């Protein structure tokens, strides 16, 4: 008995099979020998095609993603964070203090990286190194869910964000490929004295954790965090602050981003994320119209001589919150003194020359991908506002007018501090993005957004 699968092809079938193989051989003639690198293939495609593929992968990936809600987080397994001194998601915390006491001896040798990679302490005073970091972040740091808008850091912004007073080079922690020395990973910390409820702590703020897109399956992020923790511990510091758009164990507060359009036409044309309300352009222009000029008397840009007055204003305002920075005079100068395309600060000076109010915002630029008209967006993010004599809504409306005059397309603010008092009045709309605040190796009760007196630029 002969199986039907063992039958020999007829003469016609054999001829057709030969023609099919010949055709396939001709089609494959251009292909290089050996297995093809999918990343190399992706890199050869036009940028628009690359974006389409990456968008499809993002939308249809079956791989687990980091949770964006507390409900998702409770079903998620945190392999790394469950080993760290952070509160568990279901913990009810009523006490204050460190979760793990500082170690008597800190590990001397760096943590091991995957084979083929090495640590590098980045010298950000070197322009070529700063440009490398800029390229890594701009190509890999973050982008919106539709993969159409990507952050675009400038060299000046990175100098501002990563080199405040008392910064340490060893806290600028990079990873390079051994074969070509390409920078493929980065994490940083900067000094940050804070008040947590009644406790004043010398801590660090963790910034700009970034791993090259092609290496994210190598679980390099936990190693970066461990290595930075080791380097911070070497300086006798054991607490850190950080923010994220995803839910990790465990937020001490969760805040919402609000948006105020300054250039509605452009935002609608690029389909800006979080501003997709169904409205006509004419209605959007009318709704978001602003005065042509500021109206607060005595409002002017900050100068270096204003730093002591601003420090005093901020100290009086920030002490009422449960989480707030302790800013030295040098830090006030660094974070608030105006820098072109980085940070803008305005003060109100009364008739006697005393400073009564301050408002500050920093600049976040983005690239618009694959748009026929627009290539970039500029967002102003509210940093600090303290008002002793001026109505805060009036002060913030003037800030919107000034930001628009400087060419910003949108103004963003968190619902922290006293911001809720002006958000709806000035026609900010609530966005779909959350910013979660975290403390590393410190437990304290959760706090509502209006009790947070701290803004952490990326």
From TrEMBL:
InterPro entries, per database record: Acyl_CoA_acyltransferase, NMT, NMT_C, NMT_N
Basic and acidic residues composition-biased segments: 1-11, 25-36
Stretch list, region Disordered: 1-41
GO cellular component, one term: cytosol
Pfam families: NMT, NMT_C
Membrane topology listed for this record: Peripheral membrane protein
Localization terms from the record: Cytoplasm, Cytosol; Membrane
Catalytic activity reported: N-terminal glycyl-[protein] + tetradecanoyl-CoA = N-tetradecanoylglycyl-[protein] + CoA + H(+)
Domain Glycylpeptide N-tetradecanoyltransferase N-terminal: 105-255
Gene Ontology MF: a single term: glycylpeptide N-tetradecanoyltransferase activity
Top-level taxon: Eukaryota
Residues making up the signal peptide according to the UniProt record: none
Enzyme class: transferase
Function, in words: Adds a myristoyl group to the N-terminal glycine residue of certain cellular proteins.
Protein name: Glycylpeptide N-tetradecanoyltransferase
Source organism of this protein record: Acanthochromis polyacanthus (spiny chromis)
Phylogenetic classification of the source organism: Eukaryota, Metazoa, Chordata, Craniata, Vertebrata
């Amino acid at each position: 008995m002969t199986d039907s699968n063992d039958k020999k092809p007829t003469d016609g079938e054999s001829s057709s099979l030969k023609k099919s193989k010949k055709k396939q051989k001709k089609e494959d003639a251009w292909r290089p020998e050996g297995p093809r690198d999918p990343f190399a293939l992706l890199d050869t495609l036009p940028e628009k095609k690359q974006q389409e593929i990456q968008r499809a992968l993002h939308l249809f990936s079956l791989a687990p993603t980091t949770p964006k809600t507390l409900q998702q987080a409770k079903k998620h397994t945190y392999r790394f964070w469950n080993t760290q001194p952070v509160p568990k998601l279901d913990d009810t915390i009523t006490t204050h203090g460190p979760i793990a006491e500082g170690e008597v001896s800190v590990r001397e040798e760096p943590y091991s990286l995957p084979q083929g990679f090495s640590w590098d302490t980045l010298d950000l005073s070197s322009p070529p190194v700063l440009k490398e970091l800029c390229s890594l972040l701009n190509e890999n740091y973050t982008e919106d869910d539709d993969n159409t808008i990507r952050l675009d850091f400038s060299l000046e912004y990175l100098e501002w964000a990563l080199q405040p007073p008392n910064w340490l080079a060893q806290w600028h922690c990079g990873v390079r490929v051994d074969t070509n020395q390409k920078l493929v990973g980065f994490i940083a910390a900067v000094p940050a004295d804070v008040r947590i409820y009644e406790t004043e702590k010398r801590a660090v703020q963790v910034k700009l954790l970034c791993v090259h897109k092609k290496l994210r399956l190598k679980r390099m992020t936990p190693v970066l965090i461990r290595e930075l923790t080791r380097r911070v511990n070497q300086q006798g510091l054991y607490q850190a602050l950080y923010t994220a758009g995803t839910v990790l164990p465990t937020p001490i507060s969760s805040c919402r981003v609000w948006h105020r359009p300054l250039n509605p036409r452009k935002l609608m044309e690029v389909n800006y994320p979080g501003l997709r309300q169904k409205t006509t352009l004419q209605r959007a222009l009318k709704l978001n119209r602003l005065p042509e000029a500021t109206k607060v008397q005595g409002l002017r840009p900050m100068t270096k001589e204003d730093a002591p007055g601003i420090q005093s204003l901020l100290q009086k305002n920030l002490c009422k919150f449960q989480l707030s920075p302790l800013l030295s005079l040098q830090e006030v100068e660094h974070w608030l003194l105006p820098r072109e395309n980085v940070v803008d600060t305005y003060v109100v000076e009364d008739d006697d020359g005393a400073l009564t109010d301050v408002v500050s915002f920093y600049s976040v630029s983005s690239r618009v991908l694959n748009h026929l008209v627009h290539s970039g967006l500029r967002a102003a993010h509210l940093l600090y506002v303290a008002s002793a004599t001026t109505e805060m809504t009036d002060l913030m409306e003037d800030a919107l007018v000034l930001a628009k005059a400087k060419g910003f397309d949108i103004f963003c603010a968190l619902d922290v501090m006293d911001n809720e008092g002006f958000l709806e009045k000035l026609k900010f709309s609530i966005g779909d993005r959350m910013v979660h605040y975290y403390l590393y190796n410190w437990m304290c009760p959760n706090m509502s957004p209006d009790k947070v007196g701290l803004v952490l630029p990326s």
